[in-house]
Amino acid sequence: MTFFWSIVHCISIRLELKVVNPLRQRRHTLPASEFRNLTPQDAISVFEIEREAFVSVSGECPLTLDEVLNFLGQCPELSLGWFEEGRLVAFIIGSGWDKERLSQEAMTQHVPDTPTVHIHVLSVHRHCRQQGKGSILLWRYLQYLRCVPGLRRALLICEDFLVPFYQKAGFKEKGPSAISVSNMQFQEMEYMVGGQAYTRRNSGC
Ligand SMILES: CC(C)(COP(=O)(O)OP(=O)(O)OC[C@H]1O[C@@H](n2cnc3c(N)ncnc32)[C@H](O)[C@@H]1OP(=O)(O)O)[C@@H](O)C(=O)NCCC(=O)NCCS
């Protein structure tokens, strides 16, 4: 065999090894469970879950598709998605806010570099509800916020029936919100990042 053909032979063996090497194949397997910040590429999956969760119930989504795209473009670091085998099963979208209480403008604005995150929406895919996923994702998100420089608190609004759900996660009631959507009234809830709630599940950053 000439030197040239020996080289070609070696390369072809290496290529074959690349194809059959099971360790390399495993790299392409989707993780069973993954938590990560969302990107604008996730907006459609986000909106599908959101639409099913809210439109059938109240006729209104907390965020339109354009707003989802906007927030995931402007402040992806304030979002968190839970993926199972590559499919989104639950998510949280937040944005920065710079006032003591939430007002109507907070629904569409992101104020950068502020100590407050406004949680616009937490939603779990309908097939995955009542399995603890909403609580677990919220807990992971609140732990994650400890690692975001300068972040001190989280605010959200919710309907009365979800107040106990957020209280269990360490949120405190701030009273009725000034925000109303389609005549729906909300309670405003506050969580102090770095407080004592849930410390037994300390994740480390
Ligand atoms: C609310 C939501 C995020 C909770 O997530 P989940 O994974 O189903 O909840 P978990 O299994 O972690 O916890 C269950 C607890 O949530 C609360 N909860 C959930 N849905 C509720 C509802 N419709 N009414 C009252 N409480 C409810 C209850 O406290 C329940 O505890 P219980 O089973 O002891 O009664 C989820 O049901 C969802 O996506 N709902 C539609 C969208 C929505 O309303 N989002 C919140 C406002 S942004």
What is the name of the CATH class? Alpha Beta
Q: β content, as a range?
A: 15-25%
CATH superfamily: Gcn5-related N-acetyltransferase (GNAT)
CATH topology: Aminopeptidase
Largest sheet: 7 strands, mixed
Distinct ligand kinds? coenzyme A
In terms of structural class, how would the helical and strand content be classed?
Answer: alpha+beta
Q: Which shape, going by the Cα principal axes?
A: globular
Q: How many E-type strands?
A: 7
Q: How widely separated are the two ends?
A: 57 Å
Helix content: 25-40%
Order of strands, main sheet, comes to: 1-2-3-4-5-7-6
- The arrangement of helices and strands along the chain is HHEHHEEEHEHEE
> Which radius of gyration do the C-alpha atoms yield?
22 Å
- Count of helix runs: 6
Number of domains: 1
By CATH, the architecture is named 3-Layer(aba) Sandwich
EC number: 2.3.1.87
GO molecular function, one term: aralkylamine N-acetyltransferase activity
Keywords: Acyltransferase, Biological rhythms, Cytoplasm, Melatonin biosynthesis, Phosphoprotein, Transferase
Family: Belongs to the acetyltransferase family. AANAT subfamily.
